[in-house]
Amino acid sequence: xxxxxxxxxxxxxxxxxxxxxxxxxxxxxxxxxxxxxxxxxxxxxxxxxxxxxxxxxxxxxxxxxxxxxxxxxxxxxxxxxxxxxxxxxxxxxxxxxxxxxxxxxxxxxxxxxxxxxxxxxxxxxxxxxxxxxxxxxxxxxxxxxxxxxxxxxxxxxxxxxxxxxxxxxxxxxxxxxxxxxxxxxxxxxxxxxxxxxxxxxxxxxxxxxxxxxxxxxxxxxxxxxxxxxxxxxxxxxxxxxxxxxxxxxxxxxxxxxxxxxxxxxxxxxxxxxxxxxxxxxxxxxxxxxxxx
Length: 292
Known about the structure:
Elements: E1 2-6, H1 16-22, H2 25-29, E2 33-34, H3 42-52, H4 61-69, E3 78-82, H5 103-113, E4 118-125, H6 128-136, H7 144-148, H8 158-168, E5 173-178, H9 182-194, H10 207-212, H11 215-227, H12 233-247, H13 250-253, H14 264-282, E6 287-290
Parallel strand pairs: 1-3, 1-4, 2-3, 4-5, 5-6
Helix pairs in contact: 1-9, 5-8, 9-12, 11-12
């Protein structure tokens, strides 16, 4: 069985991608692709991993988990799961002075629980210049210095996290994209997570665009696409990009960063480091990097 798991990151699409995939359930079910509700597996997997603490699970644990996640008698070829806080909660991303310290542990635990299944991990990443402030805002009053745990933001590299994921679960396929590009990539991301063919019709293909675009722009985009169906994904991205340039809501696409000790120069430096890191990620073996 294939198990596709959208593992985050925190403060990226916030479960929107999983919800868009869920809109395609009737079609997916015909192909044995199941998208169970998060209540059926998030706490179950979290508590199972916490209980094991890195130890090997008892024989039969995998079957017990699958039986709890899907309905009895369902034919399942692919299981689509998601949890933006699977690696860790936003408050713990810098614990012990290491960016996403638990990434390897969590990926190894997942691979151990489902040793004979084909695991696919999906991860949306985000510029640390905006990612760190967004996560800090969810820490309920902790000082920013405490949240950072003495970690220099200039040392934060998503490629380091991906290396640990690959080392912990070398058989797992890893799909990565930038949250900043998600609106352009949404239909492709839905298809990838669901395991759909690249030319399959997609319900919820414009869910994210609808959120960040002014209503009149969203309506005009749909009318244009109905009249001029794009020939391929690249053409679809160009069309959406053109409409976003004209109709995107400023409050949805612009991020104001106001942190103690942070200035425009540091934000620019972190952004340059992130962009250089993306080039490394695109060249990483075993990583499928989806980009415009």
